[in-house]
Automatic annotation (TrEMBL), chains A, B:
Keywords: DNA-binding, Transcription, Transcription regulation. The keyword Transcription regulation applies. The lineage of its organism: Bacteria, Bacillati, Actinomycetota, Actinomycetes, Kitasatosporales. Residues 11-78 form the HTH gntR-type domain. This is GntR family transcriptional regulator. Pfam families: GntR (PF00392), UTRA (PF07702). CDD domains: WHTH_GntR. It comes from Streptomyces luomodiensis. It comes from the Bacteria. Gene3D superfamilies: Chorismate lyase-like, Winged helix-like DNA-binding domain superfamily/Winged helix DNA-binding domain. SMART domains: HTH_GNTR, UTRA. SUPFAM superfamilies: Chorismate lyase-like, Winged helix' DNA-binding domain. InterPro entries: Bact_HTH_transcr_reg (IPR050679), Chorismate_lyase_/UTRA_dom_sf (IPR028978), Tscrpt_reg_HTH_GntR (IPR000524), UTRA (IPR011663), WH-like_DNA-bd_sf (IPR036388), WH_DNA-bd_sf (IPR036390).
DNA sequence: CAGTGGTCTAGACCACTTC
DNA sequence: AAGTGGTCTAGACCACTGC
């Protein structure tokens, strides 16, 4: 009766390590503070560096740590609440601390999955506008906005065919459409090389992929695929009633 | 002039491996098919098993593969589109292929973050209803619903204090409230041990954490924290206009 | 340049599922 | 008992940052 089933299911070392580190972060470290390097931490806990890294990886995934090659591991600030889909009525570049930066626009054939949403034939090129979402000077998200030519009929063919000016022209035309609704999905992905670069992360970094389908007159006017840094972002979706407590 | 800068930025082996495997999955494997085991794959590609595993991990994160200890690695079906927040008006257990299963309810002190949202004092116990969301017989999500006593005043104190019957009683009372709105956030997390068990995954598995705050009469009526399997789920958010193409 | 995190190896053993 | 994926080790070298 006295046998209390101690450690009959021993948890993995890296899991226990993660708990210990997590508690230490709460009590002994301030946001921004740098941790001892991996080799020292591993030695201090008496584990191999790979095991220690497994624990750090989890904590980074949860947004508790930030690791940068050549620099070190620092305590991350709490995740930012990022409102998706509340940037006023469409595609305006807002200003201030949280804003979209329009990069450029090119003609391109969208990936098959996007073409399906756009209801265009698989090889039809469309306008592809690249934007970056910044907050307090740091990149939050990289977005590719796919716009079929039919959605922006007013676009003069003579204008410059690519680059930032073209991108703004596409957005300007898009803003004239009346939206009937939006449809969104969120899933986990890993950053492609180009997105990773914009997000200041390594390729393969975990991202939240937000796919938005904009509907007008029963058609799909445009499709946006935005990849948000999963380590730093908490996506918030309001439905208009009341202040956004969650966005805190 | 002829020097075309080949491989001046060599990509990591596991990254290249991932690409190769991903292509192979598209062209040579069917959904549900089992791959050769890790030791053999590693040998076949001439890399260490750890390196191969790094590639497999990424593919699993992207929902391309499913790995089960003692069984093997299989090709995963495309992610399910899961509608969050469309289960008809509140907390009804829907039936059919996609449904919530109410597990139980206990009195418990919510985590600090939840207490803050509920606007209750940190140590106030509340009703905690546990539910599981199933689709086609497989677990999609595990949810903890926190309901302050004030939100369900009609709850008779004499009823059984915990268990499934109590859980249903709480939900029944909750359904009488008129909701003014909902506020949602989505972020990446890793499964706690208890959630992992319900989701049929190992602890630490990547999950999408959906936090919902239900508002009524300016107050927070309840807070739900649902953890969805990130490997199998794509969360969809409609806003009511038109069919859900993304839910595919 | 020194110091950091990122990649990679070649092994070992463990936990779990299946037969 | 055999076979799978999961954990862990002790090393090595690479890529990047900052002084």
């Amino acid at each position: 009766m006295g046998t209390t089933q101690l450690e009959s299911v021993p948890e993995p070392k890296y899991w226990h390590l993660k708990t210990v580190l997590s508690d230490a972060l709460d009590s002994e470290f301030a946001v921004g503070e740098v941790l001892p390097n991996e080799r020292e931490l591993a030695a201090r806990f008496g584990v191999a560096r790979a095991t220690l890294r497994q624990a750090l990886e989890q904590l980074e995934l949860e947004g508790r740590l930030q690791r940068r090659r050549g620099v070190g591991t620092t305590v991350a600030p709490p995740r930012v609440g990022v409102a998706v889909g509340d940037y006023a009525h469409g595609w305006a570049d807002t200003s201030g601390e949280d804003s979209w930066r329009t990069v450029d626009s090119v003609e391109a054939v969208p990936p098959a999955a996007v073409a399906r949403l756009l209801e265009t034939a698989p090889d039809t090129p469309v306008h592809r506008v690249r934007r970056t979402r910044m907050s307090h000077g740091r990149p939050l998200a990289a977005e590719l906005l796919y716009v079929p030519a039919e959605s922006v009929p007013g676009l003069a063919a003579i204008e410059t065919p690519s680059g930032p000016a073209r991108a703004r022209a596409v957005l300007r035309e898009l803003r004239r459409l009346e939206l009937e609704g939006r449809e969104r999905s969120v899933e986990l992905g890993s950053a492609r090389a180009d997105d990773a670069k914009e997000l200041d992360r390594l390729p393969g970094a975990p991202v939240l992929v937000v796919t938005t389908r904009y509907v007008t007159e029963g058609r799909t006017a445009a499709v946006a695929v935005a990849t948000y840094r999963a380590d730093t972002c908490r996506l918030t979706f309001g439905d208009g009633a009341g202040e956004e407590l969650l966005a805190g």
